[in-house]
# Entry
Amino acid sequence: MRPAKQNETRKTLGDTVLRVNNLQVDFETPLGTVRAIDGANFDLRAGETLAILGESGSGKSVSAAAVMGLVPSPPGRISGGEVLLGDRDLVRISAREMRRVQGDRIAMVFQDAITSLNPGLTVGYQIAEPLRVKQGLSRAAARKRAIALMERVQIASAAQRVDDYPHQFSGGMSQRVMIAMALALDPEILIADEPTTALDVTVQAQIMDLLRNLQRETGMAIILITHDIGVAAEMADRVAVMYAGRIVESGPVQDILYKPSHPYTIGLMDSIPTLEQKFQRLRQIDGAPPVMTAVPKGCAFHPRCARATDLCRTQRPEVVYLSPQHGSACHYAKEVTRE
Amino acid sequence: MFRYILRRLLQSAILLFIVLSVVFVAGRSIGDPAILILGAEADAASVLQLRTNLGLEDPMLTQYLRFLGDALRGDLGATYRYGMSRGELGGGLPEGRAALPLVVERLPATFYLAGVAIAIAMIVAIPAGILAAMYPRSLLDRAINVISLAGVSVVEFWLALMLVLIFAVTLGWLPTSGYGGIAYVILPAMALAFRSIGRMAQITRSAMLDELAKPYIITARAKGLSPARVSLVHALKNASVPIVTISGDEIATILTGVIIIEFIFSWPGIGQITLDALSRRDLPIVQASIFVLVLIVLIVNLLVDLAYVILNPRIRLR
Ligand SMILES: Nc1ncnc2c1ncn2[C@@H]1O[C@H](COP(=O)(O)OP(=O)(O)O)[C@@H](O)[C@H]1O
Ligand SMILES: [Mg+2]
# Structure
């Protein structure tokens, strides 16, 4: 639709399109200030899929909200760091400028598609809305585009369904509608926050296939947020593992899967059922993730880590690079390996 | 959808029937109509004569069925008082005009006043409620809280008198009472709308706040839509159901509140004739007014139901 944009901003695979530096997000709560994101670093390259992997409460959604300019305020606030899109810091631009980034350059798909769609508006209206509002398309032209977008996400008989309301769609179909809506303005980055968690397994696989195909067609970069290491393994080019508001390990998916170098990542790997283990008890990481009001000093993971030392209890680990692409925020990154 | 509307129509018909029955019973229990007409000093023979002529000596059931039949034909009896002197009544049937047309004649004046009051209430309250929800803790948000609190605690009667005192007597900007153009309608309409403004603004505000906290709002914001569009298109579309409900309720409240306000401002509407008739014990007029007011409220409720159907796709498409 907009060839100019593609020529300008669709870079060859590998260029960094988004860089998050030392991000900090605070929430004011009755129990005091909670630092939900505490110095997170990650970057995203054109055309790739980056999985952000972590347990519930580790800060994945808040990171996405920070990138999208959607941290709820109050109680939330980005208290430090940068989100660089090209050479612009999204943390510092005005709300008006941010609205030209939202949907246009970075679009987002949410976990629960059913509640994330407006129950009072037709899906066609919701898909076409950015085209009408931001590109000034006529009602008829926008409707046509909405149907085309619905076809692109493989919604059967799109022309008939365009005037239906969200409650007439299943969870999987609603998620397809969400994806169609996100694609409307042809963004360079798509953030998908646990897009299949609310769906059953077969539908899950279909949505993941769809995302993969759309990425191939459009060349957009995807940030795929998930708590499921299997999904990350299957979809991602690179993985960033998040724990207590920080990225504790990141690197190419092969490195994370076969050479994990952070005890937490190793724990996650061990909790995957394998064929032999199918009837045995799974190994789990002992303990629970910290409550964000009481994050342990030093390395936040140390209370659950078998090899924690006094150093871990007092000193926050810096990222150790095992290869130019593969980093781990563990004092003993070079020594820990999965046996 | 048509079945839904049909069901609502049927319910309204049943309700109207119940109201008519209550009117019938109430009418018989206020006192003997014959004595009401002839006065307490009338002799027993002429009272009996009038009772027979009025059909009051017939069995209750016969009277009831006759009342219902007449009512269905729009005949709610003839006035005992209007346009006649007591002497003319004699022992025969009252020759007064039919009550219903007398009441219906007053409707335009009542609709004029109530219409202006409803328009004021909606035009002020709904935008104020929406803005208060968009800017929580703003000055407007606080003002709405104060006004709705005041609206709940202030007696309409007192408010009307205060308005007259300030704007008519002291400032002399507006006439104290009477029927006429815009200058005459402002004070009674404001007195009538005041309480509704508070309640409608409050409900609008909380309905909007409820919707603005829902996940689909984040989706709308993620699309880079302006705050105005997020509120006025996305949230308002879903908040419209409670807003229409409260508007319907308040229209009904205004239509009943109009009685006392018309009396205070000498506004020649249905309220004035009703209070007049009450003080003169003119039962048919009272019955006719109640009938007309109930009918109007039922029609308002039906329109509100229709609005729901239009606003809520989950009802519309069932
Ligand atoms: N609205 C909020 N108010 C207070 N704290 C919040 C809020 N949203 C998120 N948090 C904090 O941020 C942490 C991370 O949340 P989130 O990013 O949603 O986790 P997840 O990784 O499951 O997506 C939570 O554990 C919580 O402490
Ligand atoms: Mg989440």
In short: Residues 265 and 274 of chain A are 16 Å apart (CA to CA).
